[in-house]
Design goal:
- By secondary structure, this protein is mainly beta.
- It folds into 2 domains: 1-229, no CATH class; 231-264, no CATH class.
- The protein has 2 helices and 9 strands.
- Strands 5-1-7-8-9 form a 5-stranded antiparallel beta sheet, with no helix packed on it.
- The radius of gyration is 18 Å and the shape is globular.
- The two termini are 30 Å apart.
Length: 264
């Protein structure tokens, strides 16, 4: 998959992640809401994928983020982030060191993420997530944070009222499924770290997050979003420890089980 990622000016932002990972619950990089705003891509194994983000940007609240007259080398003034994978001359480690991504799980394994010279939208390189057998069919995650200053872990975060992002993606012919693929999330400017809110109903202030997911085989896209008052699963005791989830959510001040035991 080749991707152009664009983020438009808006929603309290901290991170934007671009990656591919099949661990939605325990992975603080790919789950929704690691402080500020984040976006990430993720696959649930089963078939190689390639991805390239040509640019991540902000746009005005009335726009959709981007114009053919702009590029990562010459970005629109409203863009907050743009990536075309052209730095590093095809060497992943050199590219990552020169990029604004703050690491991510799997970035030390070229069987999980690398740069490729085929299937790109423009330029010479794309990000490639092969989920190779030697790497346990795992993807990876590339994560960006809207740091107020230099890109660094635990940075203070910028805030936005509205965000847009755009990506060009290409799936391998044998790719079947993707889970929590592209993610944008947020919390508060002084709240960088992920809260571990999987399974919890949001309260509208601690954190927010949404992902673009895809249907198995067809790759038809849809939003997977947690929101206050959402309908949750009251029969999740068949596959989860409901009491533990309710207790953990309550400890974070989230109203998940105020009315009944459930998993969100």
């Amino acid at each position: 998959m080749r991707g152009l990622l664009m983020i438009g000016a808006g929603a309290v932002v901290a991170t934007i992640g671009f990656g591919c990972d099949d661990d939605e619950v325990t992975d603080p990089w790919t789950s929704s809401g690691s402080g500020g705003s984040s976006s990430s891509t993720g696959t649930a194994g089963g078939g190689a994928t390639s991805s390239t983000s040509t640019s991540t940007s902000t746009s005005t609240s009335s726009g959709t983020g981007g114009s053919s007259n702009f590029s990562c080398a010459s970005p629109d003034a409203n863009w907050v982030f743009c990536e075309d994978f052209e730095q590093g001359s095809g060497d992943f480690d050199s590219w990552l060191a020169a990029s604004d991504f703050i690491g991510g799980p799997g970035t030390d394994d070229r069987g999980r993420v690398d740069l490729a010279t085929d299937h790109h939208q423009s330029g010479s390189y794309s990000a490639f997530m092969p989920a190779s057998p030697d790497s346990g069919y795992q993807g990876a995650s590339l994560d960006w944070y809207a740091c107020d200053g230099a890109q660094a872990s635990n940075c203070a975060l910028q805030s936005f009222d509205q965000l847009y992002f755009r990506a060009w993606i290409r799936f391998a012919d044998d790719h079947a499924d993707v889970h929590h693929f592209m993610n944008i999330s947020g919390s508060q400017p002084d709240d960088y770290w992920y809260h571990g809110t999987a399974g919890c109903m949001p309260n509208g202030s601690l954190a927010m997050g949404t992902t673009v997911d895809h249907r198995t085989d067809t790759h038809e896209s849809f939003f997977y979003t947690y929101y206050p008052g959402m309908n949750c699963d009251t029969n999740c005791g068949n596959y989860a420890d409901v009491a533990a989830i309710c207790a953990e959510c309550a400890n974070k001040g989230l109203p998940t089980c105020d009315q009944q035991q459930q998993c969100c």
